[in-house]
Amino acid sequence: MECRQEAPASERLYREFKDKGVEFVGIFVKDRESDVQKFVKRYGLTFPAGLDDGMKIANAYKFVATPMTVIVAKDGTIADRRTGPQSEKALREKIEKLLK
User: Fold this and answer.
1) How many helices (H) and strands (E) does the chain have?
2) Model confidence over 70-89: pLDDT tens digits?
3) What is the CA radius of gyration of the chain?
4) How far is residue 76's CA from residue 65's CA, in Å, rounded to a whole number?
5) According to a count of CB atoms within 10 Å of the terminal CB, is the N or C end of the chain lower?
6) Which long-range contacts (CB under 8 A, 24 or more apart) does 39-46 make?
7) Domains of the chain by range and CATH?
8) CB atoms inside a 10 Å sphere around CB 13
């Protein structure tokens, strides 16, 4: 599961950018709530994370596979959408670009 690879990087980036108004949200699809809680605890995630029961969020953002990274700009538009694992470096660069 690629989400396991991204979790530590996502947490580091969240801690780095949260004071600049950047939010992270972990959305779990096709999981059980107990598995979500275990994952959050195992990786020490401090950003909001939860189960997308009914796939409403996944459908709204057109998730095609997991992991999927969606970056939403300040104006609410989708600035970037990528399927598959993202490197910490690539995510940092995208975030920094949007903050300029």
Assistant:
1) 4, 4
2) 988 888 888 889 888 889 99
3) 13
4) 22
5) C
6) 39/3, 39/7, 43/4, 43/7, 43/8, 43/11, 44/11, 45/7, 45/10, 45/11, 46/11, 46/14, 46/15
7) 2-91 (3.40.30.10)
8) 19
Tokens of 97: 């670009």
Place of tokens 């300029």: 100
Residue by residue, DSSP assigns 58-89 as HHHTT--SSSEEEEE-TTS-EEEEEES---HH
Residue 16 is predicted with a pLDDT of: 96
Q: What is the Cβ-side half-sphere exposure of residue 25, based on CA atoms within 13 angstroms?
A: 10
Cα gap 45→15, rounded to integer Å: 10
Residue listed under structure tokens 């530590």: 8
Spatial separation of the C-alpha atoms in residues 7 and 12, rounded to whole Å: 9
Query: pLDDT digit string (tens) for 41-52?
Result: 999 999 999 999
Q: Residue 22 — left, alpha, or beta (φ > 0 → left; ψ -120 to 50 → alpha)?
A: beta
